[in-house]
Amino acid sequence: MKNRLPSIPVQTRFTSTPVTRRPIQALATAILLATPLHAASISWSGGEGDYNDTANWTGGVLPGGGDTAIVSNGGTVWLTDGRTVGSLSVPEGSFGVTPGQSLTNSGAFTIGQQSGGLGKFDLDNGQLVASGAMTVGTAGGSGLFTFYNGFINRSGAGATIIGEGNGSNGEFVQFSGFIMCMTSWQIGSGTGATGIYDFTGQSAANAHDWFIVGGEGASGTFKISGNGSFSKLPTMPGTHVAIGRGNGSTGAIEQTGGYFVNRERDTYLGESGTATATWTLSGSNSIATLATLVMGHADSASATFVHNGGTLSASRIVKGDSTGTAAMIFNGGTLTARSNDADFISGLDSVTIEDGGVIIDTTPELNSGFTQLDIGFAVDLLDGGGGLTKRGVGSLTYEGTGFYTGTTVVEGGTLYIDGELTDSDVTVAAGGTLAGAGTIGGSVTAQGTIAPGHGVGTLTVEEDVSVSGTLAIELTAADGDLLAVTGDLNVEGATLLIELPDGPPLTEPYIIASYGTRSGGDFAGIEGGDGYTIDYAYEGNKIAVTPGVSPYATWASAFDWENEGDELAEADPDSDGFANALEFFLDGDPLVAGPPPGEPSGSVSGDRFLFVFERNAGASSVEPVIEYGTSLDLPLVAADGEDGVTITTEESPGGQVWTVSFPMPPGGKLFARLKVEL
Question: What does pTM read for this prediction?
């Protein structure tokens, strides 16, 4: 059988200590048994051969369930039939489980524990059940475990350690298959040790207990590639993921593909001591899904996250209490949030946007329960040549200082700039909104929406602004939004959307934009600003919403209203059943009870019903609505020339007399009502 194990060149030396045991004869059955009288250490004495060939073992006895099987002579063992051993020790040599076979190991499982030697273990489409301590590379030796398919079940007492102790090197390569690890899992443990876990292909693994990469002075590296999925599950209370733990430790995750999932527990990048930890995420198919990512948790531990590609999805990204540095570098890829958080990124010593830029996506995860996400952060964004793209529904609020020089793009949702972008041009796509009360040092080009303020406020742009989408302005009784442009402002083809306050009409001009120069034409349309005009050169270099004096406002200003709200069109301060709108329309006095002069009246003339009222001259711009029907539901609206209805008007000294003539229905009963809408 060909040995497919990767090789690590080392100096090779070994010793062999044979162990001989005597078989006993059971007289009652006359069968020769290979069962030892007591547990023993049995060494491999062959070269490359079959585990089940007794000639390959010292004393001619196969190791059993209570024995320790030892391969220390540089030989190669192939397990071609399922076996149970007490412990397995491969200081120097190779042990392989062939396809379809299983090994049950109830005691210690140690590969590569001879100083200067190399021990190997190969599991190819088989099964390993190990319930004791499991170590690959210890005591100054080198160990290599390769796993091609099948299942590994780690449980019981003792940790799972890849690379333990000074001068030791351990490597675990998983090309495929599934691992269930119920014990503490450590990649590199102890001063001077090196551990590597290479997780690739279609692999899968679940870590239920501690998962530590680079602990207690060791160097640990977790390499993730391919399309597999590694998950830390919350099975064991108080456990988490630690990358870099203890003085002198270095921990690294190098992820170029696949999934790293730790949704329920925090991930500590640089947990304690003087540890140095790095996580490099790259490759378009790489996804890291985390709860809180804590960078620099305690002591003087340092952490660096380099985001070159793929997707980092986290509930929060924060620095812990460490006096070391916590740095994040964006150079491609997407950052997504898993929940609403106004402090999504906080406390980091530096965040840099390199040439590849960063996409921040506020689209919720499937089945997350969120329809949109609203997040924010205030850390400064340092310049490395790249820019920032806001994508997805929901909002991102930025309150720091962005020194980056690449373009800021709003593809979807809302980007609030409540801090400052010192030198970034901003592009707003058709589905995006730029808002906020901060300062933009570059230019703004918007096919989407610009909505100054976070609430009501001023958005300042120090260079040119061109809006072909929408300029959304909110006005209150006391204040209003303002787009303050130092450079040139062009609103030609844009829509001005005005949100007016509740209550009486505005009476003073509101400045909605200021500019250094203005090019192009006027707004293409205005929404929500009926009764108001736009002054494009108010005070010379401002755009103002100027309230026209509405007929109703002119009428209402002539009265001395006693209570707040009495002046509203729907109010009836004299309680005579005629609201102010009707009093205005019919030339009444809203403070004196009684019907107004133009009150409607009805009469029958032959086969017609005549409904007559007089419109006040000051209300000539208001079109009345006459509802009618044979019941008080009044389901119909009168229109001249329809259904036998005629409407005539006649000028009068006080305004205009309206006569609405209806044909009398069978039964001779008809109801009509005047309705005034301002």
Answer: 0.78
